[in-house]
Write a structure and sequence with these properties.
The chain has 157 residues and is mainly α. The protein has a single domain, classed as Tetracycline Repressor, domain 2 (Orthogonal Bundle). The chain has seven helices and no strands. Helix 2 crosses helix 6 and helix 6 packs antiparallel against helix 7. The chain is globular.
Length: 157
């Protein structure tokens, strides 16, 4: 019961934990740096997201899929850069548009497309919808995300 000396309720405690987890994961994503090609950098972020989902599934579920009153909401919270995890992906998408790698478009929607694709793959895998090993699932994620990247790329003339 001592924990409730610091938090007024279980809900407040869980919200604080969620915020801390988002912040920590955002720091981890930022630490991935800017080494390598754009595609390699996108793949590093994909790997980090899949790693987090598979090594910490309960935390992942709570902060990314469970309804929560304090959860960031698209588009306002993302455009206001309130999501430490999403900012890293959005910044990389913005760079891809600026340098002509991606077609012009709304950065937040481009980043959302990529994040939703990966999260959907993770949900299907964890729900037992893929009859593959974790190693094969990771390879499938890479192939699938390459298709998404191809679709976002600016056509070469």
């Amino acid at each position: 019961m001592a924990i409730y000396h610091y938090f007024p309720s279980r809900k407040a405690l869980l919200e604080d934990i969620a915020n801390e987890e988002f912040l920590n994961f955002g720091v981890h994503l930022a630490a991935l740096g800017n080494e390598g090609t754009l595609e390699q950098r996108f793949q590093k972020r994909l790997d980090a997201f899949v790693d987090f989902a598979l090594t910490r599934p309960r935390v992942f579920d709570y902060i990314f899929t469970e309804p929560r009153a304090g959860a960031r909401r698209f588009p306002e919270d993302f455009e206001e850069r309130k999501s430490a995890t999403f900012n890293s992906l959005a910044d990389l998408c913005a760079e891809a548009v600026r340098c002509g790698y991606f077609r012009p478009g709304d950065i937040w929607e481009i980043a959302l497309t990529m994040a939703a694709h990966t999260q959907g793959m993770i949900s299907l895998y964890r729900g037992g919808r893929f009859a593959v090993s974790e190693k094969e699932f990771r390879k499938l994620c890479h192939r699938s995300s390459e298709r998404v990247l191809r679709g976002l790329r600016k056509p070469r003339h």
